[in-house]
Amino acid sequence: MSIKRTFLSLLLALCTSLCVFAQEDSGRSDMSHSIEVQAAQYFASGVEDAVSSLGVAYYLDTNRLNFRTTFQLAYNSIDLTSRAAYYPFEINAKSTHRFGAGALIHLEHYYDTFFATDVLLSLCYDLITAKGFCFFFDGGASYNNSVIYGLEGSLSQFSFAFDITLLQKLTDRFSVYASFASHDEFRYPFFITPNYKLGVSFDIMPKHNLKIETLVRCRDQFTTAPYVDNLYLKLYWKITL
Predict the structure, then answer these.
(1) Distance between alpha carbon 42 and the CA centroid of its chain, in Å?
(2) What's the pLDDT tens digit per position in 135-187?
(3) Which strand (E) or helix (H) includes residue 22?
(4) Residue 36: how many other CB atoms lie within 10 Å
(5) Which segments of the chain have a pLDDT < 70?
(6) What is the value of pTM for the model shown?
(7) How far apart are CA 104 and CA 79, in angstroms?
(8) How is 120-172 classified by DSSP, letter by letter?
(9) What are phi and psi of 129, to 5 degrees?
C-alpha cells in the first residue's frame, strides 16, 4: 500500500507543478488551445465487444508544456484520460532534441462490470528534424487498479509502459505516422499486449486538422500463441482556437 501511495503522491505533485507552470505561462504568446472531436468504431475480435464511440478532447500546448484531457462515451462504458508532459531541456542543433517527464491518469467505468484506474509516470524524448521526420518516445512505470462489481477488494498491478511514435511530414499539410506502444489512450492492458497504430494527418484548412488512424492490439505476443485481441478505425477533427 505504501508503494501505491508513493506512486500516486508523485503523480499529484507532478500534475500540481504542471498546473502552476501553466498558470504562470497563461500570458505567453506561444500558448495554444485546441478542441478535438473523435469518432471510433471498435471491431470485435477478442474479449471486447464491437462498439461505436464518440469523444471530445481539449489540448493546451506551449513550447515546454503539453496537456490534454479526453472524454469518450460508448453504449457500454465511459472513459476519461488526462496527460501532461513538461520539457525543461531542449537542444537545438541540426535537429531539435527535447527531454522531459510526463504523467497520465485514466478512469474507466464499464457499466455494471468494473471501474478501472490507470496511472503512468514516464520520461519523454522528442526528436524533430528539419526534413520533417519526428521521433517520440515515452517510457516509464504504470499502475493499474480494477474494482470488479460483485467481488470484494480489487485487482492491481505495477508494470512498465512505453510509446514509440514515428512521424514523417510529406508536405506542409500532409503527414503519416506509426506507433508501437504498450497502451492506447483508453486501454491499458498488461505489458505483453502491445498496440500497433498507423495513421494519416491532413490540414484541411488553417487551424483545422483531420486524422484517420487504425489500431491493432495483439495479446500474448511475447508469451504463447499471439492473436489479435482488438482493432479499431478512428477519425479525429481538431480545431485550434
Answers:
(1) 17
(2) 999 999 999 998 888 787 788 889 889 999 999 999 999 999 999 998 899 98
(3) helix 2-24
(4) 18
(5) 1-29, 44-48, 190-192, 219-227
(6) 0.84
(7) 13
(8) EEEEEEEEE-TTSEEEEEEEEEEEEEEEETTSSS-EEEEEEEEEEEEEEE-SS
(9) -100, 165
Residue holding cell 471491431? 43
Residue 76's identity, in one-letter code, is N
Q: Which residues of 155-180 are buried (b: 16+ CB within 10 A; e: fewer)?
A: eeeebebbbebebebeeeeebebebe
State how far the Cα of 67 lies from the Cα of 84, in Å rounded to an integer.
Answer: 4
Dihedral angle at the C-alpha atoms of 139, 224, 195, 163, nearest 10 degrees? Answer: 10
Which residue, among 78, 79, 101, has the nearest Cα to 11 in the 3D structure? 101
Measured between alpha carbons, how far is 67 from 145 in angstroms, rounded to an integer?
Answer: 23
Contact 234, 43 (CB under 8 A): no
CA distance linking residue 116 with residue 16, whole number of Å: 23
Provide the β-strand partners of residue 65: 86
Do the beta carbons of residue 227 and residue 218 sit within 8 Å?
Answer: yes
Q: What is the DSSP string of 69-126?
A: EEEEEESSEEEEEEEEEEEEEEEESSSEEEEEEEEEEEEEEETTTEEEEEEEEEEEEE
Q: Which residues share a beta bridge with 241?
A: none
